[in-house]
Amino acid sequence: MDSAFFTSLLADYHWQYSLIALVGIFAIDYALKWLAVLVVPTFREASAVNQAAYREKMEKPAYAANQSWNRKWGPVNLVVIFGLILPFCLTMDPQPWWRVLLDMFVILMFYDFFYYLVHRFLFHDAGFLGGPLIWVHAVHHRQQHPCRQDSSYIHPIEVMLGLGLYAASIFVLSRFMGDFHVVTIIVTWIAFSEINLHNHDLWKADKFPFKYLNTMAFMHHNHHAKFTGGNFATISLLYDWMFGTLDYGDEYTQKVIARNQAKAAKTGAANPADGT
Ligand SMILES: [Zn+2]
Ligand SMILES: [Zn+2]
Asked: Is residue 2 part of a domain?
């Protein structure tokens, strides 16, 4: 790559913007959670149920050890992302409000597409790659009926891959779309992390306006219930719908069994030398 590329990249390094984004994410996320639990009874009840489940799980030493093992790596990821990647992707130039929403949508859906592929083909054995990182992802799947805090019950390598993919999505898109506003990164990061947390929520409210939240938690719990489940995307159900991996429960299991049987029958037919 020519030196002009690196010169223009270095001129675009704004650590101050990255620091503002980091502080903004923590402060606004904390304030929003505090407000949501204070004002909305449904969030208050869900928070109590999930906290109680988490406390119970933390009584098991192996569970507590995994949570603290993972937490140790959190600051390293933040330093790399907010010190070495995001400073190249940020601006404070004024933008119309709709641009923030549009950019948030593009970043999340772009990330979700690649996360879908990684989750389906590297973390699970759902295709030609044979799931080379099953051993990493198996840690997260030890929780067959997760609660909110299980979104961080993960092997540190998986956290690095997930966050790395997210930061790489922002970096690549910023090369094509121009630098993202600090506000865009703050709202997108909060949405990204809250969606991931919520997917693991023990959740009961299934009436308007909580129907969508109920569906998302239900679908990710289906994914955790068995290692051969569908629902591989994390931000939305779009890619699972497009690629036929939506998992509402038994129906998907039957589909996987039928597919495996068909595959086995085909392999048998293709190997007449095996004596059958
Ligand atoms: Zn999985
Ligand atoms: Zn999960």
From this structure: no
Q: Give 229 or 51, the one with higher predicted confidence.
A: 51
pLDDT digits over 202-224, tens only?
999 999 999 999 999 999 999 99
- 204 Cα: distance to centroid of ligand 2 (angstroms): 18
Query: For residue 272, is pLDDT > 50?
Result: no
Could you tell me if residue 5 is inside a domain?
no
- Is 106:98 a contact under the CB 8 Å cutoff? no
**Residue 250 within a domain:** yes
Q: Is there a cis peptide before residue 209, judged by omega within 30 degrees of 0?
A: yes
Please give the distance, rounded to the nearest whole angstrom, from the Cα atom of residue 242 to the centre of ligand 1: 18
Q: What average pLDDT does the segment 71-100 reach?
A: 94
Domain assignment present for 75: yes
Is the pLDDT score of 1 beyond 60? Answer: no
Report the pLDDT value the prediction gives residue 220, as an integer from 0 to 100. Answer: 96
The CA 155 to ligand 2 mean position distance, Å, reads 12
Q: Which whole number is the average pLDDT over 143-149? A: 96
Owning domain of residue 246: 13-271
Count of domains forming the chain: 1
User: If you average pLDDT over every residue of the chain, what do you get?
Assistant: 91
Ligand 1 centroid to Cα of residue 144, in Å, is 11
